[in-house]
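dumping these here so i dont lose them again. two proteins, back to back, each one seq then structure tokens. dont judge the mess
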Amino acid sequence: MNRIDKTFKNLKAQDKKAFIPYIMAGDPSLEKTGEIVLMFEKCGADIVELGVPFTDPLADGPTIQRAAERALKNKATLKKVISLVKDLRQKTKIPLVLMTYYNPVFKYGEERFIADAKDAGVDGVIVPDLPPDEAGGFVKLSKKAGLAAIFLLAPTSTDERIKKVASASTGFIYYVSVTGITGAQLLLDGSIEKSIDSIRKITDKPVAVGFGVSTPDEAASVAGLADGVIVGSAIVKKASEGLNREFSDFVLRLREAIK
């Protein structure tokens, strides 16, 4: 049982939901990213998702794309993000999840990537362009290392797809609330509840909802349906406006809403 599993187990025992903020590593710098992670923890985050910048982020909207571009200009790489996690492990035990695309992992080498990530203190990995159908080796290596391999489901996922993702995923299942890119508008029309009900008929693994959660009110609504709430674009946008009191206050409001 790694830190992600322990976190969801403890939250469930307290009838609480996970707050999972996302930030792009390297924007505005790797040093500042480390400070943001520690601020997230201080504000009550349960798990932190660290984006790894990539030149072709197909799942990301304009806000996160621009953050990735800034991070790449700052020379942020997968290797440097892993090194950042290793440094953070001297200061925090909060579960850390990397969200990266497969190209950097392939270039790094799957086996070496998983070994280095685990050694640094990474708890889980999300690779949105690596479907479970093509991830047999990745899943096997991750399980052996005790690293959570987190896969995605969407509003269009069939029962067959849910079974496949539920079987492959460890840590939690990432439910993409909209059929689009990050930052798209959230629709609280009952469709999320219906989809999560379908997932829960098949698996008891935790389900965290991301894509489109932008406000504390939306976070509160999603927390009533899922085991965790992922907030990305709204946090990245606030961070780009300044790492100040207003930014930390926004994170605190999200935390309070998810409680």
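---- next one ----
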Amino acid sequence: MKVAVFSAKDYDRDFLNRAAQGSDCDHHLSFFEARLDPGTVTLADGQDCICAFVNDCLDRSVLEALAKGGTRLVGLRCAGFNNVDLVAALELDIAVARVPAYSPQAVAEHTVALILSLNRKIHRAYARVREGNFALDGLLGFNLAGRTVGIVGTGQIGMAFAAIIRGFGCRVLAHDPNPDKRFEQLGGDYVAIEKLFEQSDIISLHCPLTPQTHHLIDSATIERMKPGVMLINTSRGAVVDTKALISALKSGKIGHLGLDVYEEEGDFFFENLSNKVITDDVFARLLTFPNTLITGHQGFFTREAMDAIASTTIGNISSFETTGSALHPISLDEIA
């Protein structure tokens, strides 16, 4: 199949080309660094499949242009699909596939890294020591053992995180509309989300972005949380209302904030803007808080995860070419 890969970086080329070479099918991959949106969709003319990432735009207008250009498959190289208009895709007879699981441990371990760095001020201590400052003032942390950690979403990533954080001796609570017995076997307890907010010292978000979870964390839910709570988001940026976070940081209601995602990240994440001015005033305000640690959507970024993403993506494309159906298709039932 002819495949147009959007938002492609050098590492995408390496892993996808390697996976394609190991496939039984003959795929021709064209790589475009540009994001897919209404202005770049013409690059996909004549392509059987487009391979998209988290910040590519697949709304109705883009899908209509893809269908007109001959595209029959959208192969997402990610688990989330909130950027795809699935209703439009169904109407236009464009199949949509994703990578449902690549390395849950990668994101779970990054979540723990954010917690440990924020708690023990590792990022601040690193900067101090490089400048010859070995003072401990302002670096006081707390023991994780005995703390209550609330997990919103116990899919594969949430479960992997629960297993790790349980090993620190934490009490673990969770909320998920589809409980997993394995969580309780770990010693965790499912509770109403209100109780989770009220009792957790640390809250970690691992739910998908859906209409139901959009701005799940807002002023009202933050008000329910403990004073000085640590909030971590490695799921999707729009699960939280960023302006509400800023107000809570200013008041001290949120004592530590760790983000690997941001609501408007599509404008600059995955790019080197070190020589440019970031014009997003809300993001710039977040960066001013000393108790906030932000990484650029790198939670997934391990060798194991990239191998799995590439092989599953090529597997979806090969299966669609040979059978007419991807290995991991997305249906409207998944957002019902």
